[in-house]
Amino acid sequence: MDRDRNLLFGVFAVQLRKVTPSQIMEAAGAWAADPSRALSDRLIENQALTESDREFLNGLVEQSIKAHGGDVAATLVSLGGPAQVERSFYGSVSINQKGDVETVRLDDRASDTSSLGVEETPGRYSQIGETARGGMGRILLVHDEFLGRDVALKELLPGLMPSSDAPAPKMSPAREGMSLLSRFLQEARITGQLEHPSIVPVYELGHRSDGTIYYTMKLVRGETLEEAIKSARNLQERLELLNHFIDLCQGIAYSHSLNVIHRDIKPSNVMVGKFGETVVLDWGLAKVKGKEDVHSEEIKETIRMMNLGDEEAVGKTAHGAVMGTPLYMSPEQAKGQLDQVDERSDVYSLGAVLYELLTGVPLFASGPVKRVLEQVIGEEPRPVRGLVPEVPAELAAICEKAISKTSERRYASANELAKEVQRFQSGALVHAHEYTTSERISRFIGRNRALVTTSVGAAGVLILISALYVTQIVKSNRDLVTARDAAVSALDSEAKARMKAEESLWEAYLSNTRAAELELGNQDLPAARALLLGTPQEFRGWEWGY
Known about the structure:
alpha+beta
C-alpha cells in the first residue's frame, strides 16, 4: 500500500534524524490532508530532504519490506504500528480504527534534532583493504584523497541486516534492521564524543547514496594487547605492558566521567601502537547512564541463550558475534542484570585484562559459553601467584581486588585502579596489599635508594675520620702519661702530691674525652658536648677542640 510505504518512509526519516520534528509534522499534515502527493515529495519541496536522502531512505524502506516477505502492512506493524507512527510523526497524524490516516494537529512540541551525517563526496575514500568484519558491519582501510592519509572506515552494510529466513528471531527482520541502525549510530556518536588520547578519534559520520552508513576514524598501526601478551616470552616482558594497562584504565575512567560504560573491555579491543600509543576500540556495546539502552533486550537475549548453552543460536544473534566467549564479562552482566552494570563492572573487566597480563592466560579456560558463564558467576579464578609465583605480591593483590565477585569490594573507579598500579611502579605502598615490616623497609629503601645510599656513605666516612682522630688522641695521651711519670719520680713528695692531684684531674679529662668519643660513635651529639664541657679548661687541647 502506498499509504504504508509513505508511513514507513516517514518513520525511517525521523529515526535516522534526516528531518526535524517540525519538518516531518508540517509535511505529514499536508500529506495526510492530500495523499495524492508522496510524503517524500513534500519533504523535498520543503527543502527538508535532498534527492540523495530520498534515495537512501527509499532503499531502507524496500529492504525492510523485502525482509518481511514483501508485506508492507506487516512491515509497518513490526515497527510498532499506529503507536510508532504517532510517536515518529510527533502526533501530527494518526491511524484511526478504520485504518485511515487522519491529521491530528501540527505544532512545535519537539525541539530540533541534527541530521544523520554528511553525504559522502564521491571519490574521497579509496579502499585499500578490509581489516575486520563483525556483527554490524566491517572495518576498511581506506585512503582519504582529500587529506592524503590512511584512515579506518567502519560501515554498516545493508546486506548485513538479518533476512526473513533467520531461525526464530527475537524481533521481526524490519525491526532488527532498525535496531542495527540505532546501535551503529549510537556507537559512532558515543565514540565521537570521547576525546581522549587513549580513545580512537572519529573524523566523520556519513552515508552513501546506496544506503551505506559509515564513520571514519584514526588508523592505529600496531597490534592488539591480546597479541602483545601472547607474544611476550616471560613475566618480565609482560610487565613491560603495564604502562599500556594504565593508559587503558585512564581512557575508561575518562569515559566514565561522561557517564559512558564500555561493557566490552578485553585485550582484543585495545590497540598497542608502535610508538607507545594505547587506544581503546569498539564502543559498540557501550551505554550512556541515564539514557535508553538500545542494546538491553538483545544483550539479555544473547546471555539467556548463552546460559542455555545454545551455541548456534548465540552466533546468530546480533550481539553473539560481538561478545564472543564472555571471559571478561562481570558477574552481574553474566547474570543479565544490566541495570546493575556500572563503572565497577568495567573495573572487573579491567581486572580480567590485568590477570591475563600477569599470568599469560585468561581468568578461566575457554570452552562452551554456558560453562564460561558458570565460572564467571560462581567460581573463583586460580590465584595469580599460584600460576606465576614470580608475580609481585602487590600486583596480585591489586588484580584480585579488581576481579572480586562482589561489586562493592572492587575499586570504586578505573582511575583508582590506575593509581594503584602507578603506586606499585613508583615503590609506594599499595592499598590492596598487607605489608610485613621487612616488606615496608624494603619498599622504603627501594623508593629512596639514592637517599639511603648517600646517607650510609656519609655515615661511614664520618665514622672512619672519627676513628683516625681518636687513635691519635689515645697515642698522644699515652706519650704524655709516660713523660709525666718520669718527671714525677724526680720530684719531692709535695710536688708528687700536687702532681697526683693534677694526674687525677687529667685522668678525669681523658675519661670524659673517651666517653665523648663513644657518644659521637652513637651519634648522640648533645651527650658528647656535655661531657666535653665538663672537663677542666686547662687540659683542653686540640683533641678537645676537634
